[in-house]
Design goal:
The complex is a heterodimer. Chain A is of the alpha+beta class. Helices cover about 55% and strands about 15% of the residues of chain A. Chain A has one domain. In chain A, strand 2, helix 6 and strand 3 form a beta-alpha-beta unit. The longest helix of chain A has 22 residues. Chain A is globular and about 45 Å long. By secondary structure, chain B is α/β, with parallel strands linked by helices. Chain B folds into three domains: about 60 residues, no CATH class; about 140 residues, Rossmann fold (3-Layer(aba) Sandwich); about 150 residues, 3-Layer(aba) Sandwich (Rossmann fold), CATH 3.40.50.720. Chain B is built from 14 helices and twelve strands. In chain B, strand 1 and strand 2 form a beta hairpin. In chain B, helix 6 runs parallel beside helix 13. The two termini of chain B are about 35 Å apart. The chains are: A alpha+beta, B alpha/beta. At the A-B interface, helix 2, helix 4 and helix 5 of A face strand 3, helix 3, helix 6 and helix 7 of B.
């Protein structure tokens, strides 16, 4: 099988996944799981209490909530696209020593992810966009708030960017604030 | 060979043949051991600066090794009853100029090499800022988001207990860093206070204000960036009102720098964040942008619209035609591929390490002045110093006083590095390292070697 054929097959497999009506269900499941995980880590038995904390922008609750979503999104991308090699979560912060003094971003922070792939495809971008839309709606429903523009800030990088230390690939070699690997194949 | 490398800054690689190094023997130029990793990069810069300054070989040898390295096992009983053991580090690179100062980070990739390198960078940063501290760093190799809040508290308290023998307001004062915050610092301070049976809040900085934190810390780094920019423009005989500025990154640091420079009279023509950028050659309305960002659920520039304001990408912002470019977003944003396209006359590094070593060489060759991160973003550690001073006195300042003292220290620091850069004919980055290494070496020399 040629590389083009492989790519086409992967794209068609991914498209099938994207068009599956269960994307919304999957997103809703991710949010439920993130709420439960957050409640457990915050020592709370009531999901509704966590939803209130998230709506108020409690930074600890928000960080647990978003971390759980990051792991699940990474797992979903890896499961649906064989090109995905690893997924990293990173802080979009100039100076890590200042991060904790910034204003809390509330329940709808952006998830900054770097997706390391063996080959860039339009199908993966479509999958990410679909998942993002579904997650935005699921968060809005779970927290009873208006839907945000976006939840995912995903940067897809390939081996060239990693080895040449260019683009977001350079961040993987960061000294001051290295991204955290949340999933690997 | 050494002299040709002196302009390339921290991350340059000085190619030296691997040599056997006998610890404690007076080293000679060209006979240094080659070290790997991040620590190796820090040592390369130190070696090249020390040779240029003709630092006493014995003192140079002292600076090549951290004063103290403590590796500790941190057992934690998890909520499910299981016991996990984590590895923690505290490295004190130098206490020649005062107690050690540096953050504590929780991250899966923390290791001794990284902590050593960051500890040495803190030594240089405190010396450049002229505050009476040495350098340290610490961390635990762990993924903190996998911990519950209770587990994180137990991890922090056990780690604090393990490193407490080398901490103290007159020994070593930690601060927040990657994945640690004011709450973690409060746990550290409380643990130390319990062991010492007295309130020891000055043992850490970055605390919540009710526990002895300082006013003015939130904007400190951005304010320092703005003050540094103002001083540079003054030296270049450029008026603030005729200066155009572009800022990449509109988080805590970038937005504070934009706001203060705008208040000083500069024309902020372009800003950007993760959602994209805005440009208006006549100058952006920064207060209006700040209102928009504050109201945006994700605190982003996204959706901002005003007359004559056009959209711009983050990459385009870096190369737009302005007097001052302030990278305040991520590391390695200015690299060999875009350094030739940069049109700004000066770059003020608000982020840590925004310029790669290759780009640094290109910018220097093109005559673009770069104010290095070690100087430009030192405002944060300076206000941490103020927090420590206030805690020791148990007397707390109004924000005005914090800002006034920050200005005094940043202006003095800038003047020292600028003058050295001019008199020695080197880049400001090189001058900053020369100044720092010389200051620490002088302190060691004056104190003498005990006993």
């Amino acid at each position: 099988m040629t590389q083009t054929q492989t790519q086409t097959t992967v794209q068609s497999q991914t498209r099938t996944a994207v068009q599956t009506p269960s994307t919304d269900d999957a997103a809703a499941h991710m949010i439920r799981k993130a709420l439960s995980s957050c409640a457990y880590k915050m020592g709370s038995k009531e999901i509704s209490h966590i939803a209130i904390k998230l709506r108020r922008g409690d930074s600890t609750a928000c960080s647990y909530f978003m971390y759980s979503i990051a792991g699940q999104v990474a797992e979903a991308l890896g499961a649906q696209d064989d090109n995905v090699q690893a997924v990293y979560l990173f802080e979009h912060d100039a100076t890590p020593q200042d991060g904790c003094f910034a204003d809390s971003s509330g329940p709808a922070q952006l998830l900054h992810l770097i997706v390391h792939v063996s080959c860039q495809t339009a199908a993966l971008n479509a999958l990410i966009a679909t998942l993002d839309r579904a997650l935005v709606q699921a968060v809005a429903r779970a927290l009873d708030g208006p839907p945000q523009q976006s939840l995912l800030d995903v940067h897809v990088i390939d081996d060239t960017e990693v080895t040449s230390h260019t683009g977001y690939g350079a961040l993987l070699h960061s000294l001051h604030n290295r991204p955290i690997q949340v999933w690997t194949r | 060979m050494e002299k040709e490398h002196v302009l390339t800054g921290l991350r340059d690689a000085v190619s030296e043949p691997p040599q056997k190094f006998i610890v404690g023997a007076p080293p000679k130029e060209g006979l240094w051991p080659q070290k790997e990793g991040l620590w190796g990069q820090v040592i390369s810069t130190l070696d090249s600066v020390a040779h240029q300054l003709d630092i006493d070989p014995g003192i140079h040898a002292i600076l090549r090794q951290p004063e103290r390295e403590l590796t500790v096992a941190v057992p934690v009983q998890m909520d499910d009853g299981t016991i996990h053991v984590f590895t923690g580090y505290r490295v004190q690179h130098s206490s020649a100029r005062g107690p050690c100062k540096g953050g504590i980070r929780y991250h899966p990739n923390v290791d001794l090499d990284e902590v050593r390198a960051l500890a040495a960078l803190m030594t240089w940063k405190c010396a450049v800022a002229g505050i009476p501290y040495g350098g340290a760093k610490g961390g635990i190799q762990c993924e903190p988001k996998l911990f519950s809040r209770h587990e994180l508290c137990r991890l922090t308290r056990r780690f604090t207990t393990a490193i407490l023998p080398i901490l103290g307001p007159r020994r070593d004062i930690p601060a927040p860093d990657v994945n640690t915050d004011a709450q973690v610092m409060a746990w550290v301070a409380d643990t130390a206070s319990m062991f010492q049976s007295e309130s020891t809040m000055a043992i850490v900085t970055g605390k919540p204000i009710p526990l002895g934190g300082s006013q003015g810390r939130r904007q400190a780094t951005g304010r320092g960036v703005a003050l540094t920019t103002r001083e540079l423009l003054h030296r270049l005989d450029k008026s603030l009102s005729s200066t155009t500025v572009a800022i990449q990154g509109y988080g805590n640091v970038g937005s504070a720098a934009a706001t203060i420079l705008h208040e000083m009279g500069c024309r902020i023509v372009s800003v950007s964040d993760i959602s994209g950028g805005l440009i208006r050659p006549a100058g952006l309305d920064i207060p209006s942008i700040n209102e928009h960002v504050a109201a945006h659920p994700q605190h982003l520039l996204e959706g901002y619209a005003a007359q004559d304001v056009a959209q711009i990408s983050n990459e385009e912002l870096l190369t737009c035609d302005v007097d001052v470019l302030i990278p305040a977003a991520l590391e390695n944003q200015i690299h060999a591929d875009n350094a030739e396209q940069i049109q700004a006359r000066v770059i003020v590094e608000a982020a840590n390490g925004p310029t790669t070593s290759q780009a640094d060489e290109i910018l220097h060759a093109r005559g673009i002045t770069v104010v290095p991160d070690i100087l430009a973003n030192a405002g944060g550690v300076v206000v941490s110093y103020f927090e420590w001073v206030q805690d020791l006195q148990s007397f707390f300042w109004e924000e005005d006083e914090v800002n006034r003292n920050l200005e005094r220290i940043m202006v003095q620091s800038f003047e020292r590095i600028w003058s050295l850069s001019r008199t020695q004919g080197v880049s400001m980055r090189r001058a900053a390292y020369m100044y720092a290494v010389n200051e620490v070496a002088s302190a060691i020399h004056t104190r003498g070697i005990f006993p």
